[in-house]
Specification:
Length: about 450
């Protein structure tokens, strides 16, 4: 980076003209760009300026001189954040997160639906919980409400199990064991889950998830296989998942349907297990129950979603976890089959890839903006999707013109004016804050689009 640029950046942040930049000022600036002070990259860069020989004294001035500042901005994400070059520009990110905040407030009174009843941990979940987390491919984050309350990931593990199988075997081999068609049925319907050959319709239904997990490190001991799954989650989220033992035990005790599906697949040689081990289908089902019982929260799950939105690269570490092809394939299947038997309706209304789990989570991916939104609210609709979660998706898409097909042409142009800062023909940037702009009124019209 050019020295001159660093210097002018330093000057622009040295508001007191004291030849220093206050750390709070730098962190505030990064916060506006969407990076949190506890982002590992920010923490690492800022703490690297602390002289370890000098004992920390409370109240000591927290500033960076030019040399220290230059060290800190060597961290690429900080440099890009200060240049407004992250996945979303600071104004765009602020506008989007304000929308999230408003929708959150509007939906607090939405109490329809019922929490999942089939196991005690879900039956006893606090129905009032509600949290939303946003994460972009560069790790810009926003959260509101119960975004750090833990829940079992349940079916939202399925896209990632599919991704792991794709990474290991490649698409051609994976799809010998599992299809990629919309099932149209419920997630566990034994009649509709498998085709005539015993092959599950897709990796988003239970049979398909068991089939893909059976392809993940099949030669290792089950505990090592599970460790591989946990490690993949940790790489995406920048923090390890937890494990909900009670949910696992209850899933195992009540999962007769899933065990039945595993048996049916094994009977047709459509489950990658040892044919001579008569307990192998049961073990495959248990592995699936364990993965469903991984514990995450909206904030961490949003980072996993952002990994998909980012073409397979984890947001905080910049590490490639999946290939671009894998991420694309996973999102495609989520796009048509991620929301149980309301997937078609959801595709019509929202048009973006999403996956939900019966604990009340919904993970929505917005590829165009390289971002993921995760909601957590345990009351479910009849299809098993979180009522508030689905509503958040609909409202966000409506408000920001994110449906890839609904806002084509003129409507899309209007929506883009408010979100994405398209340059107007006459020059200058249009934005929602420009009250006089005719775009604002039109956006309201687009926002009222009845889907
Ligand atoms: N683990 C549950 C099951 O397999 C449900 C998973 C879900 O749909 O979220 O029956």
């Amino acid at each position: 980076m050019a020295e001159f640029d660093v210097e002018s950046l330093f000057r622009s942040l040295d508001t007191d003209r004291a030849n220093v930049v206050w750390k709070w000022k730098l962190l505030e600036e990064l916060g506006q760009a969407g990076l949190r002070a506890d982002d590992p990259r920010v923490e690492r860069a800022v703490s690297s300026t602390v002289d370890s020989d000098t004992p920390f004294e409370p109240g000591q001035p927290e500033w960076l001189d030019f040399e220290q500042f230059r060290e800190v901005v060597r961290e690429p994400v900080i440099w890009r954040a200060l240049q407004g070059q992250l996945s979303m520009r600071p104004d765009e990110f602020a506008e989007f997160t304000q929308g999230v905040e408003r929708i959150y407030a509007e939906l607090l009174d939405e109490r329809s639906g019922e929490v999942a009843q089939y196991i005690p941990t879900l039956r006893n979940a606090d129905p009032e919980r509600f949290g939303i987390a946003v994460c972009t491919g560069d790790g810009q984050v926003f959260q509101i409400g119960d975004a750090t309350v833990g829940f079992s990931v349940q079916s939202t593990s399925k896209p990632f199990s599919y991704a792991m199988a794709l990474e290991q075997l490649g698409a051609a081999d994976v799809h010998r064991w599992v299809g990629q068609e919309q099932s149209g049925g419920t997630f566990n319907d034994p009649r509709l889950s498998l085709d005539a050959a015993g092959k599950p319709q897709n990796p988003m239904i239970n049979a398909g998830a068991m089939a893909t997990l059976a392809l993940v490190e099949p030669d290792l001991d089950v505990s090592e296989r599970f460790a591989k799954v946990e490690q993949t989650w940790a790489r995406m989220m920048g923090a390890p998942p937890g494990f909900d033992h009670r949910t696992f035990l209850a899933e195992r005790d009540t999962g007769h349907g899933n065990r039945g599906l595993a048996n049916l697949m094994a009977a047709k040689d459509m489950l990658n297990v040892d044919p001579k081990d008569r307990d192998a289908p049961q073990k495959a089902a248990e592995f699936y129950f364990a993965v469903c019982s991984l514990e995450v929260d909206a904030q961490r799950l949003a980072a996993a979603g952002a990994t998909l939105a980012n073409g397979g690269v984890a947001p905080y570490s910049g590490e490639r976890v999946f290939s671009q092809e894998t991420a694309g394939r996973v999102l495609s299947v989520m796009g048509h089959s991620g929301m149980y038997n309301d997937s078609g309706q959801f595709a019509g209304q929202v048009g973006l890839p999403a996956k939900s789990g019966v604990s009340g989570n919904v993970m929505l991916v917005v590829p165009e903006k390289r971002l993921a939104v995760v909601t957590f609210s345990p009351r479910l609709d009849e299809a098993g999707n979180s009522v508030r979660g689905v509503e958040v998706c609909k409202r966000l898409v409506n408000e920001f013109g994110l449906h890839p097909y609904q806002s084509l042409g003129a409507e899309r142009e209007v929506a883009r004016l408010a979100f994405g800062g398209v340059t107007r023909p006459g020059g200058g940037r249009a934005g929602q804050h420009n009250a006089a702009a005719p775009a604002t009124a039109s956006v309201t019209r687009a926002g009222e689009l009845q889907l």
